[in-house]
């Protein structure tokens, strides 16, 4: 009880010093809890939606990952409805039609597809739809030419009753008039949904009234879902997938959960980085508090307190800090989850705050993370406090560093750093991407830990160099700032390490992202001869689109590009599923793929193909060999190998080329995949005219984009930039915690040096000079952390680029403007972090400061 009272008194006495550490715990716990609450809410919301839309028993096609992508969903014969109606226990059989391969445009030719990337869906209206939506305006679709639109899409694009919409699908285009608006009863999953009557949905979405994408069966009273499933399977055999409502719900949850898990673990990964950075802040806080209370601890030891009691006293303070920070963090996490839900709402996915899900385990996890991390971080300072000798403490208010321990620490740090550097070198020279990735991860871990451990040694060396460049121009004040930063290398190293972690990740990702853009740009310049690329945002090109592209003027040639599924048997007798790139012969000019044997033009001859270099080596394929190629859903061909393409590329790496006419020869017309994109070459000197002609020809298809090479490069740069900006935003949390560490270190350092500051003020140091000294000390610490982080991050990024080179991304590009901006920004961070400590130091009363013990 005495230990608890002492700890509580000390905690309250130093509550100002504990505040920033508590904020670090709060932010870390908030990120963890916010992620869990948000993902649990998403899961619960969609579980409810899946449960509301599931039929008692559903019959759907068996999943075929290797089916030809014809732009239409897999189907069942509509005639199956008659057999299902006779199944014992089936009260009702409802044909289901659904397709996500369509686009919708309004009267102004503007696409209604969600900007968030969510799908545009066309479905048939039936009684089961009333479980998830209700028609709040108008009526159900009663025939061809009528449709119901979901309310969120209608509101966002100002679609009103009676408006005409154009729907583009693989079978063709058709127009509908909006006769109803449907509002979700549960949640809007973010999709744009158009409802059609069943015959229209079959004809327009599937291309035939003789097919459906599934059937929903309602069980009669007293018949369980499992029994009905058994009866259905007995009646129609095992050629179809039959699921109960629970199984359908579970399957949907599995598909959705796999996507959500990626987001969940990514966010928790960034939360882990913030926790790691927070550990440095907490260690520094308690180390300095222990050092400042050395005399007090010595007195406690002198009057009979044991080492265990002193140790327990410090750990109890850490426990209090962890509990306070964690409780606040749990509340902050719930607020963060609400903010994420609002963000999703702005992107089109309406999540009801009434569905906010806080599982009992979430606050327990948050509390455990905050408390355990805080107590573990305080363990070393607590252990150090317990070792203080009473007499030594009474003689000296400081806590001298253990020279032997410092040498051991330095030795361990150098060994870890050396081992990490060796792992990075091995990763950079690896021939296999998988093995190299493991070495890269090991190298990153070892070098990071090594730099943290060897931080005090590096502080003594690097700070002197930085000071010589930055501080010497400030005269005596600059030299004082340098000596203050070097006074406790362990503290300076720990403070800088927190900043180093975040900036190392920023630098590494910047190098990787910049190298990816530079490599892709170089590949485009080297390999792509086409002037324009035409592709769609949602699915393949329709016959009408293809005709429109080919009708454009000022175009020398147009190349179609499709992907065909096939099973290939090689001369070594092995058979495997492969994807054939079926394209027009002009594709050889539009994308100049290098070859190691043969000529690429030969691959586009009659009954010919190419294979990639790696595939040829693995299966002993040579130019002139004939491969047995069984087209999925079509006939088997024997294709002659006309060329072996080089793997030294990132464009179409590993592709097998053949003439699109060859694919059409062995596939039925309704199973031939339509082009995914088209390439166009302008006539000499008519590039601008061709671009204008293509855009004019495709004015009725806003989902199609006509891009020249400059546009495509910009697209790649924007996509990589968006991803990096999102990651930088998440890493900002760790950097914020690191900045709090700098603030806390300076604040505690000012308290520790109260008497010294008073003496300097007494002998003539002005308030302005004092504040400048503290600001310069902060800048040096920040620049030290930035220098370590950026250097380490560039080494990680350069190694990662070596692995990317195995995938054809062979250009290393260091983004020096970004690196320079981050380095200079670190100096600004140091200045801002010092504002409050410098202000407080400047306001000290000189006489009171001198009298401080």
Automatic annotation (TrEMBL):
PANTHER family associated with the record: ABC TRANSPORTER PERMEASE YTRF (PTHR30572:SF4), MEMBRANE COMPONENT OF TRANSPORTER-RELATED (PTHR30572)
Designated name of the protein: FtsX-like permease family protein
Which Pfam families does the protein's record reference?
Answer: FtsX, MacB_PCD
The UniProt family comment states: Belongs to the ABC-4 integral membrane protein family.
Which keywords does UniProt give here? Cell membrane, Membrane, Transmembrane, Transmembrane helix
Q: Which residues form the MacB-like periplasmic core domain?
A: 19-234, 492-695
Q: Which residues cross the membrane?
A: 265-291, 318-341, 361-382, 411-430, 442-475, 496-518, 726-751, 776-798, 818-839
Topology versus the membrane? Multi-pass membrane protein
Predominant cellular place of this UniProt entry's protein: membrane
Show where the ABC3 transporter permease C-terminal domain sits: 270-390, 730-845
């Amino acid at each position: 009880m005495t230990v608890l009272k002492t700890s509580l008194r000390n905690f309250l006495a130093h509550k100002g010093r504990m505040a920033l550490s508590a904020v670090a715990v709060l932010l870390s716990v908030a990120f963890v809890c916010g992620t869990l609450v948000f993902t649990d809410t998403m899961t619960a919301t969609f579980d409810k939606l899946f449960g509301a839309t599931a039929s008692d028993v559903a019959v759907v096609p068996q999943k075929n990952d290797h089916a030809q992508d014809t732009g239409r969903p897999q189907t069942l014969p509509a005639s199956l409805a008659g057999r299902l109606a006779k199944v014992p226990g089936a009260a009702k059989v409802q044909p289901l039609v659904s397709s996500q391969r369509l686009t919708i445009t309004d009267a102004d030719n503007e696409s209604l597809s969600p900007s968030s990337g969510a799908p545009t869906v066309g479905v048939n209206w039936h009684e089961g739809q009333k479980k998830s939506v209700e028609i709040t305006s108008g009526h159900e679709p009663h025939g061809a030419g009528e449709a119901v639109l979901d309310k969120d899409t209608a509101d966002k694009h100002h679609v009103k009753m009676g408006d005409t919409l154009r729907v583009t699908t693989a079978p063709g285009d058709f127009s509908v008039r909006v006769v109803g608006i449907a509002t979700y009863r549960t949640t809007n999953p973010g999709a744009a949904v158009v409802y059609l009557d069943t015959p229209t949905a079959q004809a327009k979405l599937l291309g035939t009234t003789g097919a459906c994408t599934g059937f929903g069966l309602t069980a009669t009273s007293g018949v369980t879902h499992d029994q009905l499933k058994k009866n259905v399977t007995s009646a129609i055999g095992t050629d179809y997938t039959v699921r109960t409502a629970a199984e359908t719900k579970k399957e949907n949850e599995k598909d959705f959960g796999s996507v959500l898990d990626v987001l969940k673990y990514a966010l928790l990964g960034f939360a882990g980085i913030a926790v790691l950075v927070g550990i440095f802040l907490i260690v520094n806080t308690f180390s300095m508090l222990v050092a400042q209370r050395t005399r007090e601890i010595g007195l406690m030891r002198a009057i009979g307190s044991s080492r265990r009691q002193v140790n327990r006293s410090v750990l109890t303070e850490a426990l209090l800090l962890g509990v306070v920070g964690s409780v606040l963090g749990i509340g902050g996490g719930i607020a963060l989850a609400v903010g994420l839900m609002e963000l999703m709402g702005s992107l089109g996915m309406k999540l009801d705050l009434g569905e906010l899900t806080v599982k009992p385990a979430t606050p327990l996890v948050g509390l455990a993370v905050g408390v355990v991390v805080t107590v573990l971080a305080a363990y070393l300072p607590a252990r150090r406090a317990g070792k203080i000798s009473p007499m030594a403490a009474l003689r000296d208010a400081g806590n001298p560093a253990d020279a032997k321990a410092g040498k051991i620490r330095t030795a361990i740090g150098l060994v870890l750093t050396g081992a990490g550097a060796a792992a990075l070198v091995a990763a950079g020279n690896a021939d296999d991407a998988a093995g190299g990735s493991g070495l890269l991860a090991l190298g990153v871990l070892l070098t990071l830990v090594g730099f943290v451990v060897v931080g005090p040694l590096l502080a003594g060396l690097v700070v002197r160099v930085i000071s010589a460049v930055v501080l010497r121009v400030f005269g005596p004040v600059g030299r004082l700032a340098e000596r203050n930063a070097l006074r406790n290398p362990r503290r300076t190293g720990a403070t800088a390490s927190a900043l180093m972690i975040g900036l190392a990740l920023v630098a590494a990702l910047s190098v990787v992202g910049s190298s990816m853009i530079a490599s892709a740009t170089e590949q485009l310049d080297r390999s792509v001869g086409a002037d324009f690329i035409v592709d769609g945002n949602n699915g393949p090109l329709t016959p009408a689109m293809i005709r429109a592209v080919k009708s454009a003027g000022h175009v020398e040639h147009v190349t179609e590009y499709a992907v065909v599924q096939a099973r290939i048997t090689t001369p070594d007798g092995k058979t495997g599923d492969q994807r054939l790139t079926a394209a027009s012969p002009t594709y050889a000019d539009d994308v100049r793929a290098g070859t190691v044997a043969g000529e690429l033009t030969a691959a586009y001859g009659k009954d010919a193909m190419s294979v990639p270099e790696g595939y040829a080596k693995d299966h002993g394929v040579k130019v002139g060999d004939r491969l047995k190629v069984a087209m999925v859903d079509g006939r088997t061909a024997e294709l002659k190998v006309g060329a072996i393409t080089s793997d030294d590329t990132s464009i179409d790496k590993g592709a097998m080329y053949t003439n699109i006419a060859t694919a059409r020869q062995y596939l039925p017309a309704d199973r031939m995949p339509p082009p995914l994109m088209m390439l166009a070459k302008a006539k000499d000197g008519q590039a601008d005219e061709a671009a204008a002609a293509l855009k004019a020809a495709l004015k009725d298809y806003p989902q199609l984009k006509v891009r020249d090479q400059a546009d495509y490069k910009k697209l790649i740069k924007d996509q990589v930039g968006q991803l990096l900006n999102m990651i930088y935003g998440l890493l900002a949390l760790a950097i914020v915690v690191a900045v709090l560490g700098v603030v806390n270190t300076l604040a505690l350092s000012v308290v520790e040096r109260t008497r010294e500051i008073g003496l300097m003020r007494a002998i003539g140091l002005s308030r302005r000079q004092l504040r400048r000294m503290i600001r310069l000390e902060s800048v040096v610490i920040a620049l030290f952390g930035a220098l370590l982080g950026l250097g380490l991050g560039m080494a990680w990024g350069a190694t990662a680029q070596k692995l990317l080179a195995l995938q054809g991304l062979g250009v290393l590009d260091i983004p020096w403007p970004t690196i320079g901006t981050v380095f200079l920004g670190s100096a600004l961070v140091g200045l801002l972090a010092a504002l409050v400590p410098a202000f407080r130091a400047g306001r000290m009363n000189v006489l009171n400061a001198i009298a401080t013990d």
